[in-house]
Amino acid sequence: MNDATPLHWHAVAPALIVLGGTVAVLCAEAFLRPRSSILGRRLSESWRVTFLGTVVVVTLTVALLTAVDQWRGGGYASLLSKQPMLRIDRLASFGACLVLAATLLASAFSLTSLAERNRQTGAHFALLLISLVGMLIVQSATHLVSLFVGIELACLPLYAVLGLENDRLSGVEGGLKAFFHGSVASAVMLYGFVLLYGATGTMSYPGLRDALSGNAGPLATLGTGLTVVGFAAKVGWVPFHAWSPDAQQGASPGAAIQLGVALRCAMLIGLLRLLTDAFGVTEDGALLPRVFWTLAALSMIVGAAMANLQKNLVRMYAYAGIAHLGLMSIGLATITRASFGALLFYLMSFTFATLGSFAVIAALSRRGRGELRVEDLRGLAHRQPVLAGFMTLFCISLAGFPGTAGFVSRLYVFTSAVDAGVIVLNLIALMCTLILALLYVRIVATMYAGESGASSPVSRVSSGEGLALAACGFAAVVFGLFPNAGSAGWLAWLRAIDWTQASVAFLF
Amino acid sequence: MTVATLGGLIFFPLLAAIAWLGVELMLRGLWARAIPTSLWWSVGFAASVVNAAIAGLVWSSFEPTEVRFQLVEYARWLPDFGANYLVGVDGLSLLLSVFVAGLSPLVWLRYRREICAVGKSYAFFLLAFETTLLGTLLSLNLLLFYVFWELSLLSMALLSAGRSSASPREAVLPFAGVAAAGSLPMLLAILVLASLGPDAELAAGRHILDFIAPVEASGSALRDLRVPTWGEAVWWKTQPALFAAFVLAFVSRSGLFPLHVWLIPTSTAIPRSAAVMLMAALPLLGIYGLLRFAIPMFPESAFAWSPVLVAVATVGLLYGALIALVERDPRRIAVYVSLAALHLAIIGLFSLSGEGFEGATAFLLTYGIAVAGLLFAIDRLGAEPGAEPAEERPIEPAGLSPFSLIMLVGVAFAMGGLPGSGGFVSQLLVLLGSYSVYPVISALATLGLGLLIIVLLRLVRRVSSAESSSSRFFRVDEGVVLLAALVPTLWIGLYPEPVLRRLHPSVLELCAVVETKVSSETLEKHGWRGCH
Predict the structure, then answer these.
(1) Does this model's pTM top 0.80?
(2) Mean per-residue pLDDT over chain A, rounded
(3) Are A385 and B187 a contacting pair at CB < 8 A?
(4) Which of A290, A477, B207, B208 has its CA 20 to 30 A from that of A63?
């Protein structure tokens, strides 16, 4: 099936750059041992971490710029048309931009806390970067084999990163749970792939699409079902969500972002492609939209309800993340171009707001103060007004209040669902939004309430955290006020809604 | 007009707050020095005074006899969802926004100590809150309206949080919960409205949510859209469903019976300056929304549901008055009196008659002034915000200075609608309007008003018979606030012409919309007599 099309290295440039960065980090880790010296001077730990961090940040920035450039160029869809393994179109580039930006900012803000807690910084970053390569592959896979390879490559290093937090019970617990859950999910998914192959005799998306377009037999249906279940477990839809709050609670803030945001981005975008390109799901396609309807509704209800019961802040964010996942999967229940665009936009706003919140959490939970409870935020506005201001912004964005990206993303999702005539799911989404809004209002109100008895020490915001806060704050406000700056002007380049529309255009 | 007067009126407080925040951050960053909270107060007060001046400018450039919206500003914003920046003012929104802009400096002046004590973020949110109120009143795009509407909820919630003693669960969540539960269905209803009809301008086949046509040529206006009635479309695209969502939002925000559950917990637990805004300014938004959007867009449903809504409002009026009768704490009495009186606006509005509309609009203004005055007058009485309710402690009516006492008498008159006060004119109109349609309701409402007068006079008697412990006869802030609250009340009471003249075109416009959209049989059955 390969007629010797030359491999376009520049098409997979972001992944290659990240891979190069991984090697660089590993080498640096190997050669810059603690207590090693350069030119007769002893290297301090902070210097070493700064060096590693610089390598990571530079790698990711270059990869991000490459991905942005690929998106602007419209991707390499035509170049790779004879390569059945990967397809670098605008959807893949959009996803690449998102996960690269998320990892970049997450690395920036987790640098200080990693250095302070004297973690295995090099291993941490190397694993994150390898997992990132996997995510990039997932987003552009057009073959079940490359999809599976990408998923494994994305997930396994993340479990190892969770395992690095082995001085805390919750870290070990989260790592183990994620690993077992993930392995079972992979097995189920793989079995689904096998059944699909058995039923159709092909593993490439176009082939599957042709084979499934007719009257697919029970074997193919079963294979599709198992594949969806595997995806659901990896993404964390209810009822396959149980591992995700535990894993995020155990992870360091940076790893929690990889697990709760970047991995989800990659899996969802991979799923979009699988659904439309391989399964050929359409708006009136009978079964799958209804499956996603159910998953979305369950995730919204359970996620929002459970989030309200949590005392631990990260755990609360993890459950709320499940509810947000449900909200964005309304797009999967109504398979239209607008609803897929809405999903991408929601993903974007969710990514930045969650990232920013975790940057705040990282800044607050440094100095080994243990896990952060909601109650620990009491009086934060009086102690650290700037940090509290940013946290307020991210919370109201996640809550969906107007003026922030969260509002526009809800508007987008609701509008696309109304246009598709899905009203009951929309009503469930309203309820979920309400519960989430109250949750976030409670967090914010706690910050602005009076001083708590025990005064916690003020933690200085490091420059990496500051960078993440500023970038995420900018995104939350600008995508909220000008998601599609209508008129020309200095904001005319800002057309986030058009970006999402253009990214999913290839699927339809 | 090239100068964005309304934009200035709406955004000036927020921009002032943000600019001052920037100054603060710069000082902190460069010289490691923080601005004292009292300076925040000065800036906030100055900003609200300037904004009141801008409101005065709007008032003076407003042409009273003009029927159409004036000072319209338009810019494209989110065409994908039908949202534009479209603001404009007519008589109704003019009066209410002048009221809000005028109330704000008084609150800053009266509660100087409290604002300084609660903190800088509180001052920031107080300014932001003013922006959201004015934005809600002046928006003519439905989604823009929703944006400000929801932000007013958020900033109110943040204001309420700024209190050391009360936990957010007690103070903020009841209000935020009820208000957000009410307004989210409205968002969905707005989006459904947008999906109702194809629009020539839009490829997506969606409506631009402009209430009026911003540019003469563009032609599509939500006001002229006829929403399908029951049976003409899927249930969630018909008038009853959408009307219910809108009414739910507006009623829950105003804290009307039976959605008033947050009123006492929130208004007694939050800072007093926030409570004045919560009780005097925020409920106006709900009634305003009914007048501006719900009735003109869903008039058939309004006619269908009018008996139910009016009956519930009457129950609410009597309920509030009866509870106020047995309450002991002056603060809680004030809250219940305000709650009861507000139902009069609903009775006037949903009587669906010319006098009722006119009365309800005028009532909104006099109500706001009276409630603000009442809260200003009694804020020394009763329990501290967030403290135990009055059953635990004896009430100390003492401490009311002669000035506050005079003010209390004045606002009691205004609230009770006694002749010579502004309340008299508006309440008379409401009762007249409802009498022509629902005589029994009108009688019951009059009974409720009588109860309110009894409550207020008892309060005055109790307070005035107590020894005044205030040694100082005159305090500047009290004097100014007193004048500001009493003069408009008396002015409207004795010479209502300037107010009614500005309101009249809005009322005529509302009547015209109703008459074009509702079938003549329905109108006749209801006893519609037109507007004059």
Answers:
(1) yes
(2) 86
(3) no
(4) A477
